[in-house]
Amino acid sequence: MQHDLYANPNHRERLGFPLLVDLQANVVEGAYRVVAPLTSVTAGTPVNRLVPIIEHDGQKYAVLFNLITNLSGHVLRQPIGSVARYRDDLSRALDWLFFGN
Length: 101
Hints:
Elements: E1 4-7, E2 19-22, E3 32-40, E4 53-56, E5 59-63, E6 69-72, E7 81-82, H1 87-99
Antiparallel strand pairs: 1-2, 1-7, 2-3, 3-5, 3-6, 4-5
């Protein structure tokens, strides 16, 4: 579902990008889901319109919209949370990425 969080199913990338957020609206059916990776916020994390900061389980993460991809819905098994409360921030980042506003 849109804005659900998942553990990154790619074990090799999980260290740098431990979580993925499902960005796709629930009205769109198909075998694939559009997702963005999350990375832990550090002192060097860029903070701008394209990199919103969210919090999950007491940890701050940057959502990396510049690394949007799609994955088979089959690998996104059990959600571990939701960032629906950040919907406006996520939508603004998508608008900035695709429409420049």
